[in-house]
Design brief:
The protein is an alpha+beta fold. It has one helix and two strands; from the N terminus they run αββ.
């Protein structure tokens, strides 16, 4: 990340808020379940998932 304010020894946190039943909530649960499964197999795994959905389709992207 290239920013004058970025420091390696700091934790940066981002958050979003969506209402109950929003598709992002389902997508987050899918991504979390996949990451949890990977960590259960290998606690040192480095994995990130992005899940997107629309009517009749779910897209999974492994980011690492």
């Amino acid at each position: 990340m290239e920013s004058q304010n970025y420091k390696d020894d700091h934790l940066y946190f981002a958050s979003e808020s969506v209402g109950e039943g929003h598709p992002d909530k389902m997508c987050d649960q899918v991504s979390d379940a996949i990451v949890d499964a990977c960590l259960k197999i290998d606690p040192n795994a480095k994995v990130a998932m992005e899940t997107a959905s629309k009517t009749g389709m779910v897209s999974l992207t492994r980011l690492s």
